[in-house]
Amino acid sequence: MSQEKKYISYAESGVNIDANDQMVDRISSSVKSTFGPRVMDLKNGFAGLFSLDSDSKLFKKNYDHPVLVACTDGVGTKILIAQQMKKFDTVGIDLVAMSVNDMLVQGADPLFFLDYLAVNKLDPENVAVMVESIAEGCRQANCSLIGGETAEMPDIYGQDEFDMAGFAVGVVEKDRIITGEKVRQGDIIIGLGSNGVHSNGFSLARTICFKQQKLNVTDKIDSLNGRAIGDALLDPTKIYVRPVVKLLEDFADTRPVHGMAHITGGGLVGNIPRVLPSDCDASIDKNAWQVPPIFDYLAQAGPVEESEMFRVFNMGIGFTLIVDPAHADAVMQNLSESGENVYRIGEIVGGSGKVILK
């Protein structure tokens, strides 16, 4: 007598196609909320379509020699705190910010964004929250979320584990690409305030908070106005696209911005040199802005030497602009009127391509 065959399903292997379908339905409105007139909404398409038609009705501005600019990045170990907090409504903003702020350095205007999300088990509700936060980041950056991928991989990721990556494409007029080659002695360095730790240095921050201090993510810290340490660390990366793009448009005739830097891993001392000529240094006044409390806490709880803090973290400055001194005050006023916390943090002096903290 033959035994009846027992069939195995994809779901029994750990991948739920039905959950994926539910997730797609839930995120549809979030994704479409980022669409502008250049997005070609192809239902059930296998790829996103974005029109480069130069029709003035579609583009806010036309380009004579458009250059596409592309960036990719992740969020790093910050996602482990989101995982512990079960709080997924900010990491998507981080994901978008890390790419669009990078392309902004070259003067590029973001066009569209793609995301990749890998999970242990697809929870439609949690994934929908993550994608909505990505969409929120895109709205802040004035770009469209035109595609993405969610992969359920139980044999690679442990229970509740996930990772995410993002890919952005922008555009800049060829003769308006900002490279730093125009930076010269006497230029003024302007800093834009950060929103906290942003998305870099979390391996050190987590070691201090959760291994050395043995905190729980929900523990409240007096010096952080009684906030839970997890909430303070999860403050999303600030997106600088709208104010800086507006600035570049407002000063299109004089072009006073000679160089810019997104202050990510490496801090001020590691990122500003990327746009310095070999015969120039950036002299930074550490007292020109108030360092946010989260950095004071990390430095004291570590303890961490000041030089290491400035080498790892943004220390309260998330983006810098190096500008012609004749236009520095006007540039600062423009950025301030856009709602930014603006600081005059230093100047360009003769040297060998490094940052000097004073």
UniProtKB/TrEMBL annotation:
Reactions that this protein is recorded to catalyse: 2-formamido-N(1)-(5-O-phospho-beta-D-ribosyl)acetamidine + ATP = 5-amino-1-(5-phospho-beta-D-ribosyl)imidazole + ADP + phosphate + H(+)
InterPro entries registered for this protein in UniProt: PurM-like_C_dom, PurM-like_C_sf, PurM-like_N, PurM-like_N_sf, PurM_cligase
Tell me the route in metabolism or biology where this protein functions.
Purine metabolism; IMP biosynthesis via de novo pathway; 5-amino-1-(5-phospho-D-ribosyl)imidazole from N(2)-formyl-N(1)-(5-phospho-D-ribosyl)glycinamide: step 2/2
SUPFAM superfamilies found in the cross-reference section? PurM C-terminal domain-like, PurM N-terminal domain-like
Carries keyword Ligase?
yes
Gene Ontology molecular function: any one: phosphoribosylamine-glycine ligase activity
Organism equals: Anaerohalosphaera lusitana
Q: What is the name of this protein?
A: Phosphoribosylformylglycinamidine cyclo-ligase
Keywords from UniProt, A to Z, are:
ATP-binding, Cytoplasm, Ligase, Nucleotide-binding, Purine biosynthesis
